[in-house]
Amino acid sequence: MMSIFRQYTLDDSFSQVLVSPKFLKEYQIALTFASDYDDDGVPTNGVFRPTWDLTKVTPESITRFKDKNPDVDIKVFISIGNRGTQHPFKPLNNQTWIQNATMSLTSLINNLHVVHGIDVLYDHIDASPADFTECVGQLIRNLKENGVVSQASISPSSYPNQEYYPLLYSSVPFFVDWVDYQFQSEDQPVLEPTTLVKRYNELTKVYPKTKLFAGYSAENEDWATVSPFVFFLGAMDLLKKRSAPGVSIHYHNYYASEAPNNKD
């Protein structure tokens, strides 16, 4: 029934997941996050560094997970951005940000050896929609055209990003393989599964449903917006009707704790 499942993670918790080829054709690991801020919270204008646990997320740990699940396609994405208002998208200079981001992410991806894609997930954006589209759109183009990644996804949310992601998608539609909509960031609580399904169907007017995931956060503080009960019933309905190609889930509590600071 389900085709693709994505797990956002900052450690190797994916290694404990039971993956069944009866339900999945693809399992995506989205590493959170690559950030263009230093340890002191100062923006580095596109020089990205990993903030996930480098002692647990290694090429070896990912290879072991792949070997354990040979009948399911395992793909690894690096997610740039952050949840919440900390470390927003804030380029100091567009062209320099694009150059720095292309070079730093290329180096990071090549060093890991196991990365297939790039994901863009900024909850908070401190720039104009035009600047966000120019910078991120060109970054995606560069990474795909240079063969650094084979896939790219964007992960929009409602508030405060209504203007940003539709404009970004419309600028590079052929370069974006997946759109992972983050339902836990809706500006109004989603109290019924039918409301989630209705909202998903509204989104297909902006994003193709063949690309559109239903995204969810399993963190307790997000349940006031979308409870596990509401999401899973709504998502099951979407998957049964083959409206959605897959779903994604955030497992870790980004607000209560942070991953260890990792230096390049």
TrEMBL record:
- Which BP terms from GO are recorded? carbohydrate metabolic process
Q: Which residues form a coiled coil?
A: none
Which PROSITE patterns does the protein's record reference? GH18_2 (PS51910)
Q: Which domain of life is it from?
A: Eukaryota
Show where the GH18 domain sits: 1-264
Q: Which PANTHER family match?
A: CHITINASE 2-LIKE (PTHR46476), RUBISCO-ASSOCIATED PROTEIN (PTHR46476:SF12)
Instruction: Provide the protein name.
Output: GH18 domain-containing protein
Q: Which organism is it from?
A: Glycine max
